[in-house]
Amino acid sequence: MKKLIAIVDDEPDILNLVSLSLEKAGFVTEKFEIAGEFYKFLNKNIPDLLVLDLMLPDIDGFDVCKELKKDERYSSIPIIMLTARGDVTDRILGLEFGADDYVIKPFSPRELVARVKAVLRRGEVKKELQKTIEVGNILKIDLQKFQVFVEDKKLDLTSTEFKIVELLAGRKGWVYSRNQILDHLWGNDKIVVDRTIDVHIRNLREKLGKAGDLIKNVRGVGYKLEV
């Protein structure tokens, strides 16, 4: 599944340049000129990384970063600040507020793409080091042994069911569309319709038993897992 990069910048030329450069590198992008529109987007979509300008017309980029890092639904989104504010104090503040990298304008599009890839790689390494995912006191997923437990009882899941619960539990509270789940399962090789996901979710809920209620249907959008 292609990584989704959100870009927030009030300069259309820079917005388009960053988007074009990232899409040429194989990413999918969403562009926003104000933070408010980005927040609306977050209600239904979670990007794999955010490229964030600081001097926005509605909300200061530092405040956007702080708000995201305080919210457990969004705190794991990597953030690269892209700004003309090159003062050392600003750079330190950006990193202290939780930014993963800080790029100063004017910038090299190729370097920015390289930095995006580097930040995403660090996130993948961190994820690989994580051995288990626990949801409340009821559901545990062993990522190394590909096993799922409900109250310490091992479940017999198919590989598809395991991949779905791993995806949903990896970002608790985040909504995935049926198409995003399909992409996670089969990528460009998918030959099934999105309603196939409903069948897998139904079977997964049954096998999860009392933990099945953790998987919520978001009408018209897709599915999420939350306590």
Polypeptide structure, described:
The chain has about 230 residues and is α/β, with parallel strands linked by helices. The protein folds into 2 domains: about 120 residues, Rossmann fold, CATH 3.40.50.2300; about 90 residues, Winged helix-like DNA-binding domain superfamily/Winged helix DNA-binding domain (Arc Repressor Mutant, subunit A, Orthogonal Bundle), CATH 1.10.10.10. Helix content is about 40%, strand content about 20%. The protein is built from 8 helices and 12 strands. Strands 2-1-3-4-5 form a 5-stranded parallel sheet, sandwiched between helices. Strands 6-7-8-9 form a 4-stranded antiparallel sheet, with helices on one face. A hairpin with a 2-residue loop joins strand 8 and strand 9. Helix 6 crosses helix 8. The protein is elongated and about 55 Å long. About 25% of the residues are buried. The model has no long low-confidence stretch (mean pLDDT about 90).
